């Protein structure tokens, strides 16, 4: 689509809708006309095919709110004839100059005497809308990057800042991202610089794909760069400091917006996805936002009760009260000593009691246990087990 077409064609008239038409009205009008003039329904009719192209072109502009606003603004500024290029240059009181040069001034042409100094002011308005060929440039978002990082158990619980070396594509430094060794690529004739091509799919609809000739860039190098081979992109390595939030779990995938590969032609950068691998700890385990630990206790402590000290991760030990008659495998809770949650609070430390049996006993201890066994001889801890087995 040329600059001249953009200013002179009345897309509202092409679709048969008023200038204040809603998006729904534009969509409805386009579908109706597309069905009527689609090439599949008018085989061999050149006029219908040309009419279908006009309808599609009008819809491409008016169905996009941003492009529609740019179109309306351009028409309001130039559409009344004051700056329209006149035939022959003199008739009708209109100026005779190249609109492509006018808009191209924003790309480096400047506003000289021949244009009355319009290059600077109008370049600010239209510099992002048109290139020197009069076609609409399309910013391209950078690619997403995925990387991996390994943390030890404590770093995962408390959070850590780690260096991460990444390789991605960026603008080729040799050709400044143009793909052309001289920095002068030409507009792709297939997509006219848009980077996209449309294919009719029947029923008045079309499918848009990246242009196969320019690979979606909108530009084709005249003399391909020796470094990037005309792609405009080259491998780039960088090291950045990445903050891994506290409480991350093994296998979690973290998204860092805008930290991926740089975009093209002012497009935004992609995102960085970091997959976290967490190592184990010799003492502590983890269950959601809680930490776990197994603490051995003696038989007298379990039977008689008492106070026991329990280690915490990275902090001073805590003291827990062990109730008398605590069975083996019982779990107690030390509140606020676990992993960090998303809201900044901490989970709990789950303490599981493990009654230990000494391997070696002295004579005095053995004698005491023998006395204990005789004193509890009438108690059979397995009586209920056998009774239940018979009942089953």
UniProtKB/TrEMBL annotation:
Keywords: Chaperone, Cytoplasm, DNA replication, Metal-binding, Repeat, Stress response, Zinc, Zinc-finger. Binds 2 Zn(2+) ions per monomer. Its cofactor is Zn(2+). Gene3D superfamilies: DnaJ domain, Heat shock protein DnaJ, cysteine-rich domain, Urease metallochaperone UreE, N-terminal domain. CXXCXGXG motif repeats lie at residues 172-179, 188-195, 211-218, 225-232. Residues 159-237 form the CR-type domain. It comes from the Bacteria. A zinc finger (CR-type) spans 159-237. SMART domains: DnaJ. Zn(2+) 1 binds at residues 172, 175, 225, 228. Zn(2+) 2 binds at residues 188, 191, 211, 214. Residues 10-75 form the J domain. Homodimer. Belongs to the DnaJ family. Participates actively in the response to hyperosmotic and heat shock by preventing the aggregation of stress-denatured proteins and by disaggregating proteins, also in an autonomous, DnaK-independent fashion. Unfolded proteins bind initially to DnaJ; upon interaction with the DnaJ-bound protein, DnaK hydrolyzes its bound ATP, resulting in the formation of a stable complex. GrpE releases ADP from DnaK; ATP binding to DnaK triggers the release of the substrate protein, thus completing the reaction cycle. The J domain is necessary and sufficient to stimulate DnaK ATPase activity. Zinc center 1 plays an important role in the autonomous, DnaK-independent chaperone activity of DnaJ. Zinc center 2 is essential for interaction with DnaK and for DnaJ activity. This is Chaperone protein DnaJ.
């Amino acid at each position: 689509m040329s600059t001249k077409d953009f200013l002179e064609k009345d897309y509202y008239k092409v679709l048969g809708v008023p200038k204040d038409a809603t998006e729904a009205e534009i969509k409805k009008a386009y579908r109706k006309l597309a069905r009527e003039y689609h090439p599949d329904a008018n085989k061999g009719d050149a006029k219908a095919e040309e009419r279908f192209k006009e309808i599609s072109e009008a819809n491409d502009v008016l169905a996009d709110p941003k492009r529609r606003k740019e179109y309306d603004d351009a028409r309001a500024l130039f559409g009344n004839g004051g700056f329209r290029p006149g035939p022959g240059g003199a008739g009708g009181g209109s100026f005779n100059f190249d609109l492509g040069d006018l808009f191209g001034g924003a790309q480096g042409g400047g506003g000289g005497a021949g244009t009355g100094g319009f290059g600077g002011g109008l370049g600010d308005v239209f510099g992002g809308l048109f290139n020197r060929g009069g076609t609409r440039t399309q910013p391209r978002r950078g690619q997403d990057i995925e990387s991996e990082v390994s943390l030890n158990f404590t770093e995962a619980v408390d959070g850590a800042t780690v260096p991460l070396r990444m390789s991605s594509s960026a603008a080729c430094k040799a050709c400044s991202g143009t793909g052309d060794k001289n920095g002068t690529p030409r507009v792709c004739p297939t997509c006219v610089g848009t980077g996209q091509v449309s294919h009719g799919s029947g029923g008045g609809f079309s499918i848009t794909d990246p242009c196969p000739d320019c690979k979606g860039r909108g530009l084709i190098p005249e003399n391909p760069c020796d470094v990037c081979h005309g792609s405009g992109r080259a491998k780039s390595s960088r090291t950045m400091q990445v903050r891994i939030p506290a409480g991350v779990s093994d296998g979690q995938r973290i998204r860092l917006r805008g930290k991926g590969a740089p975009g093209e032609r002012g497009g935004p950068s992609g995102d960085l996805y970091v997959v976290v691998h967490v190592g184990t700890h010799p003492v502590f385990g983890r269950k959601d936002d809680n930490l776990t630990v197994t603490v051995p206790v003696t038989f007298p402590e379990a039977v008689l009760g008492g106070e026991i000290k329990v280690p915490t991760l990275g902090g001073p030990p805590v003291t827990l009260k062990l109730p008398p008659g605590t069975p083996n495998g019982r779990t107690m809770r030390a509140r606020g000593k676990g992993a960090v949650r998303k809201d900044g609070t901490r989970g709990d430390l789950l303490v599981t009691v493990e009654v230990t049996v000494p391997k070696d006993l002295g004579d005095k201890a053995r004698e005491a246990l023998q006395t204990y066994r005789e004193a509890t001889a009438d108690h059979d801890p397995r009586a209920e087990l056998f009774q239940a087995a018979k009942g089953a």
